[in-house]
Design a protein that fits this description.
169 residues; alpha+beta; Immunoglobulin-like; 9 strands
């Protein structure tokens, strides 16, 4: 009968845990809105001529854009990936804002690794109303819960296998 040492069992469990962490980090990564100009929640004294969004990852230029609308839902501008930015993680677009109020930027992007993310935020121009300082949370698939369950299953399997070897060998 060959027994597995507790040290070897611990190494197997640690290797399984590292695999789970590495997989989760890779799978969960997707383009997130890092910053914007105007900033979410800002109430500007003068109207912007341009809106700019910066994301955490490179974007697919053919599948990423944003629209700016006024309080009545009328489009006042659109934007796309700025191909002059080397990292291709910035979208810009001109806007035609001449009336005070609250404006909403809605974006839908696809990172070059294929993850789709969408969201929105608001800013104001000389608005008498309070401008919400947060946007809608980005939406898109979030595999982190499934990966956590899969990771726990892998760790459990490694423990069971190690225990089985200890008992049966």
């Amino acid at each position: 009968m060959i027994a597995i040492s507790p040290r070897r069992l611990a190494l197997q469990v640690a290797a399984a845990a590292l695999l789970v962490v590495a997989s989760a980090t890779t799978a969960v990564a997707h383009a997130e809105l890092a910053s914007s100009s105007p900033a979410a929640g800002a109430n500007l004294d003068s109207p912007p001529g341009e809106v700019s969004l910066t994301f955490s990852e490179e974007l697919d230029p053919d599948a990423s854009s944003f629209t700016v609308t006024d309080a009545d839902g009328v489009d006042v501008g659109t934007g796309s990936v700025d191909l002059d930015v080397a990292d291709r993680n910035v979208m810009t677009g001109e806007v035609a804002i001449d009336e005070p109020g609250i404006y909403t930027v809605a974006y839908a992007v696809t990172s070059v690794d294929g993850h789709d993310v969408s969201g929105s935020f608001s800013f104001g121009f000389d608005s008498d109303e309070e401008v919400p300082n947060t946007g809608l949370a980005p939406s898109g698939p979030d595999p982190s819960a499934a990966l956590t369950v899969a990771g726990l299953a892998l760790i459990g399997a490694a423990l069971a296998l190690g225990h089985r070897r200890l008992v049966h060998e």
